[in-house]
Amino acid sequence: MTSSKRFTRRRFLATTAAASAVTLVPPYISGAHAAGKLSVGFWDHWVPGANDTLTKICNEWAAKEKVEIKIDYITSQGSKLQLTGVAEAQAKSGHDILQFPSWDAPNQAKNLVPLDDIMNAAIKKNGNAVDVVEYLGKVDGHWIAVPGTNGSQLKGPCGRIDLLKKYAGLDVVKMYPGAGGKPDKALQDQWTWDAFLSAAEKCHKGGNPFGLGFGQTTDSVDWVGALFHAFGAQLVDAKGNITVKSDAVKQVLEYAQKLVKVVPPDVFAWDDASNNKYLISGQGSLIMNPPSAWAVAKRDNIKVAEQCWTFPSPKGPKGRYAPGLPFFWGIWNWSKNIPAAKSLLAHLSERSSIERLVAASGGYDIPGFSGLRDFKTWAEEGPPKGTVYNYPPRADQIVSISGSPAPVRIANQIYTQATMTKMIAKCTQSGESIDKAIGWAASELEGFMRT
Amino acid sequence: MADAVSRAGPSPAGRRMTMKKFVRRRSTIAFFMALPLILLIALLVVYPALFSMYLATLNKSMEHFVGFGNFEFLFKRDTFWMVVKQSCIFAISAVFFKALIGFFLAHFVHTIPAKGQRKWRGMLLVPWVIPPAMSTLGWFWLFDPSYSAFNWLFVRIGIDPVNWLGDPLWARISVILVNVWYGAPFFLIMYLAALKSVPEQLFEAASIDGANWWQKIWYITLPMMRNIISITVLFSLIVTFANFDIVRILTSGGPVDQTHVFATWAFNLGIQGNDIPLGASVSLFMLPILGISAIFILRGVTKRGNEA
Lengths: 451, 308
What we know:
A: alpha/beta; D-Maltodextrin-Binding Protein, domain 2; B: mainly alpha; MetI-like fold; flat; disordered N terminus
């Protein structure tokens, strides 16, 4: 009897161990940051206040999900955002989520977490992803990133209402009116690249030429890419075959030869700021740019801003192509908190989040989903009211990127080496024949095929 | 017995003495004092250099070893040879003008009385002390395609505006000009220091012998400055060949790649074009050439030092 109640050595050890376990293992308490930490690198938006809205959206999500979030805003000046992506990919460490400029998402595909679940759910709610987003964001049938709303842009025409009417007789507001207006379908059908050339010639004669860059930076490369697409001029097809030696390429170069004659002579040296300055100064009657030039004019030269109107690109033999430049948000596959990262991206892909981001950017940001084109911001921004109403791509517009539909590894080279604008420079400024420019491009493209 | 001792090696006390002597040697102390810097250089220079050599041996997707495959590929590209030619034109002409201007400026400053010399020295060093990215932005505004300050002036005095950055020839001249403006003060300060170390008696003796200004330069100044000229030119050549910021800010390599140098083209291919191995290969191309020229120039310097 006494022996059964004896406190044996074995019982002592068991009791001590149990007591220690109770003391050492803390009970699960759902604290403020119970779901871990998350580090995010977003593009540093140039619109004042846009970053604050994004931070607010993320913090609201973090508070709800009990995640400790840290956000860095990384500028794209001096390619810093791009360099961050390359450095993090090499080091296999850094942020959990990073924003990627257009080509960098597919180029880092092997280092990114597939996001089919988030994208499929977002597409169900927000409509299909636009063509260019699918081209860049889907690799081998899987979504490797989601379209990042902040920074995604379109580079259609931003023209002066007064000058286009005065010199070219073109009523852009009638052609593409603001919210509630009835678009003039006949005028829209007549808005072709030939009409564009004719208007450019008239504005040049009038002393306010179109400010179209033919340099090697993105603004020039983007709009020239859309011009090539509209003519069906592909340098490399979707299968990776070099198709530069075609009638369509010849036609577009002949067209460019005419266009170059009626733009300022220094356009081959233009960078991404040159066309903006040309419009804001009052010299230019049209540029191909997101509404950033208009936004700066609103601050620096209100008389010019009041006459600016953004509208879709002209139509070519193969369609109306809009030059798009989407950004992406991706999750590195070495992230230590993939569930939280996915949850944040799903939250940022909600209509309500996207609408707030678009509003914070003054309508500059273009969502990557075709169903999100009815936000109030575009209808209400001004002066003049409705100036950016036609900025988001609707109806017959195909959003493309220069170099597509070539496989991304080749198209990326076509884009960064500015092959198309260089071809134009060769057969205009350098005085070479069109055939020679095409021959040069064919040789360059062979070099881009390397794996 | 002596044999037995030597076979057994030094006693513990003897070993301690040898160790003490080794630690107290001036070269050992010098080595340990320089060790932090050696480690820093190894970390920030040697490791990245070796890593970029490794990168240059990989294929585009960085998954396979291709040996010299990237170099073989580059040698077949016309654009690569154009960049080689441009880099040589850029570096050689910029270093030539920097050396020439630095030489004459050093003589000019040297002749100024000591009282006012400091002011001139300070003013002439300004381009060199401003961060090049900032000063190049200033030059960009002077050359701006549409609103060039130079062209504004030209138009007012009846000269046709110049397409500074849009015309290939003028664009090349512009980038070289900015590099010369930025780098000439370095030559000035090095040559001025060398000039100050030339003994005055040599010039006095030459004057007594009836030597004119040119003969003094040719027979006294230049031979006395030969070593510093060689080292300065070599150093500047290496730095100018590797220049990035001036070309990147002024032209980004345009128009039609005609102002690209190794560094800007490597960045364009490697970072912007997502082909890091090819970019690394471009940036490494000059390494053997500059290495060999460095050996020859430094050998000359050592030889002359021994003769002296």
